[in-house]
Amino acid sequence: MSADDDLARRIARRIAAEGPLSVAAYMAMALHDPHAGYYRRRAPIGRSGDFITAPEISQIFGELIGLWCADLWLRMGQPDPVLVVELGPGRGQLLDDFLRAAATVPQFRRAIRLFLVEASPVLRAAQAVRLAAAAPEFADDFGAVPEGPGFVIANEFFDALPVRQLVRGRADWAERLVAVHDGRLVFVDGGETPLASALVPAELRDSPPGTVVEVCPAGAAFAAAIAARFARHPGAALVIDYGRDRPAPGTTLAAVRQHRAADVLAAPGTADLSAHVDFAALAEAAAAGGAAVYGPVGQGRFLAGLGAAARLAALCAASPDRRSGLDAGLARLIDPAEMGTLFKVLALASPGLPAPVGFEHEGDEAADDHAERARGR
Fold first, then answer.
1. How far apart are CA 283 and CA 345, in angstroms?
2. The pTM is what?
3. Which of 154, 161, 181, 240 is 20 to 30 A distant from 276 in Cα terms?
């Protein structure tokens, strides 16, 4: 029996013993089962994997984030040491480029203490090799990272956190569940309850019957935990992901295998599962936790504001033979028809710090709106 078949059977046995699973519980098993979960035994990133991320597309991405952090570190008073924490660092490419750019501010580079929050043994091994010179320290979860001044980077991390799906019924909302029918995993709707209704964002609760809404309690908890750190220590976080500015109805949960769409419930553990990020929910949780919130802004706008065009020109001048690839890579990141608009950037920072580069025009109105929404939920 293959590990894939074994995981499907164990999910079915759990359903037989406990009843239908929430979508979030199913995602957690499919992605992180200790024996056959997707991230436990696969190398998912790259052309030979299932998907590709921005740092793999262009070195400019990680370099600009490194300079963004260096600039804010200078304006924070140059704390030494300073933590640089990446959540879900992939193959370590972002931080490799980040550290190269950080070296242009030598005192910042020397102050960095690097922490990688990674659950995948396969990806940890790749990160350890690529970032060996930086002596990274690993943590199984964010709570294990020591406290202190620092930066948190989350690129395509929040989209992989488990979501719950809620369906509008006649009187209340119900939770969408995963059950077994004729030997196959299928979606079913649970019973309508006021508790399920309470999970739905207030602005969507009066949606018509049949409406589906996704919520991510784990994402909100992460944002609140990051905010709590920055309430105690100076620092900032960048959340970069694909998603929505505001809560919206609709199912976004999707599976990807070998760069193609796959069935979410077929062969659990063999495909990446993800859902669009609700940036408003993250912003509200962070504001309630005491952080200043900036954005979200489109990824294209953010990178352009950090000087992506100037960096591209410098790279092309230094390596004319790479011009075509460099141009294409950056265009993919910033073009609205590619990743420039769907992907968004949210910054969370300690109260009292100056507005970070790329967010100078967000102003207090947006921050007040996030805080007001947090109080009203």
1. 11
2. 0.91
3. 181
